[in-house]
Amino acid sequence: MKKLHLAVQSIEGITTVGVNRHMLFDLKSDDFSLPVYADFPLGCLQRTQGGLDNEVLISIDFAINSDKNGLKALEFLSWWVRDLARGGLSVQLRALALPPIAGQLGKTLTFTIDYFYRDPAQDMQQLLDKVLELAESLNAAKQMYLE
């Protein structure tokens, strides 16, 4: 997961990055209102009334500079995710923000890339291999289009 973290972090205009793993297979739609799940891809999960069997979510959370470089980084990652999804990968990019209270409007916008992974064998090495493939794909795209 570190290689994926570094691949995103190295894009000019990205300010912070976090890569996290969430087990979705026990998540039910009744849980969606709980604060701990507020940043989960609830629109997708509503369609299946929760996580699917043997499903794991890899979240790549990031923030951008509020300038031309940040927008360019966001546009590049948006294209990369769109291209992966068109190729058949269960992946999407979403924007996140806190409620517009106490003067925080305009200060909490972040983004996340959701990668949905299912493995009946629940083999951690296979998951790590898939995450490494994402990192390699992003690094190749960066080399081709950003350098």
UniProtKB/TrEMBL annotation:
Source organism superkingdom: Bacteria
UniProt protein name: Uncharacterized protein
Organism: Gallibacterium salpingitidis
Lineage per the UniProt record: Bacteria, Pseudomonadati, Pseudomonadota, Gammaproteobacteria, Pasteurellales
